[in-house]
Design goal:
By secondary structure, this protein is α/β, with parallel strands linked by helices. It is built from 10 helices and 5 strands; from the N terminus they run αβαβααααβαβααβα.
């Protein structure tokens, strides 16, 4: 089993346990609702090191990391999406309905996939304590409980990183970066009507070249802890 497949299965298993726990609250429980948990949504330029940074953030916080491939696989699983929807509270259902209404018109993707993706994002946001990479998450999740991060880096450096990591020629690495940048920007624009390069849409923008994986992840963790402390204070105030 490849490392990627193993990580995907681990993340799916983690999600299953989280959903099961939420759906088995004892009837008539008088416990006060817990503070809304934080979600980190990370957007990144191709080759900027954003995926490695997300994994390190997940490791430091002991939170699961959901990447593009995994989100797509979950969104296409009808049964799992339905279970996720059942576990949403009224506030998240309202947000989900608005998101589907706003984003499902006129996009090139199959409507089932987009609706499934939005349900996945809504469920993960309700559970919180996870890192979501890509798929426009930072542009659609509730801002009150989402730390939006974008990782960037100079284009020449990104091309060089891709060339080394994927053992490509300079020309092929440049093409890979161009295609992935274009596809990611087009995805967000087409389905969420947002410009992923707009710095005002994020809480943090980090340079992957200058900071490196360790320092960038450390800064995100610090911000996440401060953000969540405010959420707790708000819920108990």
């Amino acid at each position: 089993m490849t490392g990627t497949m193993s990580r995907s299965l681990d993340a799916l298993d983690s999600l299953h346990h989280r959903l099961t726990a939420e759906m088995t609250v004892p009837p008539g429980s008088t416990d006060k609702p817990a503070a809304q948990a934080l979600t980190i949504a990370l957007s990144r330029q191709a080759g900027s090191g954003g995926s490695d940074i997300a994994k390190e953030v997940g490791r430091l916080l002991d939170w699961p990391v959901y990447d593009n491939e995994l989100l797509t696989r979950i969104a296409l699983e009808k049964g799992l999406s339905a279970r996720m929807l059942e576990g949403l509270d009224e506030r998240h259902v309202s947000w989900l309905e608005q998101a589907i209404h706003s984003f499902s018109k006129g996009g090139p993707l199959d409507g089932r996939y987009l609706n499934g993706l939005l349900r996945v994002l809504a469920s993960l946001s309700k559970s919180g304590h996870c890192v979501i990479v890509g798929r426009g998450a930072s542009h659609v999740l509730p801002p009150d409980t989402t730390l939006g991060v974008r990782v960037v880096a100079p284009r020449a450096w990104r091309v060089g990183q891709v060339q080394k990591r994927m053992d490509l020629s300079a020309a092929d690495a440049e093409q890979w970066v161009n295609e992935h940048d274009r596809e990611r920007l087009a995805f967000v624009q087409a389905h969420f009507h947002a410009d992923a390069t707009d710095p005002t849409l994020y809480d943090m923008i980090l340079n992957g070249q200058r900071l490196g994986t360790t320092d960038a992840a450390s800064l995100i963790v610090q911000a996440a802890r401060a953000f969540e402390a405010r959420l707790v204070a708000k819920s108990t105030g």
